[in-house]
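Let's inspect one such protein example.
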Amino acid sequence: MKFRKFFWTLSGDDKNVIAKCNKSTRSRFTGIGVLVAVIFTLCFVSCFLAFTGLLQNLLIGIVIGLFFAWMITNIYLFLLYTLSKTGFPYIPNKTARFISVSIRLVFIAFISIIVSKPIESLIFYKPLAQDIQIFKHEKIKRYTQITNEYLDKEIKEYKRLLTGSKDEFYLRLIEDRERKKLTSTIAMERLVSKSNYYIQGMIILNKKYPISWFITVFILILFIIPTYLKIFIHKDSVFYKTKHYVESHLVRYEYVLFKERYNEIFNSKYGLDIHYDENYSDAPFNTKRKDNKRELLKEDDLLDSLYA
């Protein structure tokens, strides 16, 4: 039972309310909690791979991976919680509700895609490693070609100036440029070999391996399933009835305390018997405004009172 309550907590809702529900609803929230645990694991693996690849440091990758996995999961839980049906009185607006839910779902889809890509790079590690080696080779080849062409032009010019002259200055310049061709290539090879070209690997993955998008879709579905399970809990279920009762009772209780404190402040500090003025008949939810029963006089009545 304690194990199930742990998953109920991960679902983002009150475990005590869930415990009062029927077996079907409890199983639904257990499933949501299990999926959230899986999502946290995927987030950690994804963030760990991303930051280890970018920073090339295992310890920093673990620490930052845990932090970002915790942060992303909490954002996800918050979005999941906001998809719950409210039990408070409100003015219904289907268009606004549709837009609101759509924005949250799009944001969840965006998070799932970001989480998916580093995991895909791990799955396609071997072919990607070969592609990156080819990319490195071509990069060194292009750099060597451009560098040699540039330095060869200088060497050719120095040889032209050296023709018919025995000036050792041009000889030293020619030797320096020949040496620079070799040292520049070696330095470039060393620099390229140290980099894992993590971002370039992502670009190659998306362009060369379109099958990786099936993994993206699979992880997207994992992120969407809890929202489906949460949205389609019936508003008349035991879960929502219990939850709405608890939340409404809490709001009303705090509102009564607020009014008492409001009156107490004016009575104790200023000696005034002032009560909090309510403009709505269903306070504190404030969806039904009271009718204004004050009698409004005309302009002539004001003039009569001024010049009487």
In short: The first helix runs from residue 2 to 10. The chain has a mean pLDDT of 83.
